[in-house]
Amino acid sequence: MSIKKNLQNIIKNIPENVRLVAVSKTMPNDLINEVYDAGQRIFGENKAQELIAKQPELPDNIKWHFIGHLQTNKVKYIAPFVSMIESVDRLKLLKEINKQAKKNERTIDCLLQFHIAEEDSKFGFNKEEAVEMIESEAFSLLNNVRITGVMGMATFTEDMDQVRKEFKTLKELFKFFKENYFSDFTDFKEVSMGMSADYNIAIEEGSTNVRIGTAIFGERKKKF
Ligand SMILES: *Cc1c(COP(=O)(O)O)cnc(C)c1O
Fold this sequence. Notes:
Layout (H helix, E strand, L loop, with lengths): L2 H11 L5 E5 L5 H9 L4 E4 L2 H7 L8 E4 L8 H4 L5 E5 L2 H13 L4 E7 L12 H8 L2 H4 L4 E8 L7 H22 L8 E3 L6 H6 L4 E4 L1 H4 L7
Parallel strand pairs: 1-2, 1-8, 2-3, 3-4, 4-5, 5-6, 6-7
Bound molecules: pyridoxal-5'-phosphate.
């Protein structure tokens, strides 16, 4: 099937209020342009260096979501243009995003990434760590970041009951933080979960933002 058909099938499959991030990591610009020409405007990358290389070569009105582990010293390179950083997993990173956003006279939307999978390899806060950060004075001083919700990755498994359980956990975390810390803040509304293999389940469990690579572009050559 063509990339365009893949995209159209996915768009047909997801409700209008769920945002689609086309995950273009490892994909060359000509394929990204194909997806762009089919109407897609939001793309996701997980490596700063790769994003920095691609961004100037691609249309200006692409909204770039950063979805990978982000080193503090790379924030300055993506801060001028990134639309959302979905993978905030520590206060130090959030402080640096705030600093670089300020330098660029902008506010950057951020999601708090939670560790919901069984694997140790995935990054993210647990509930207590996020509470500690949000209650800190340092957090209250960050005026150039906007926390718009939560993000998580399920365990890499065929066991869809397990995956569903983890998505439920993320939705519960969202509700907890919404009720206890962001109840007056209407922008806190995103639950980013769901990839090619599990986005239907994620949507059933309340996803507002799915991140889909393989089901649009086909298999990646390298495993990430
Ligand atoms: C690669 C990646 C995706 C997309 O994965 P697919 O299985 O190709 O859809 C989604 N989220 C993150 C954080 C990723 O790194």
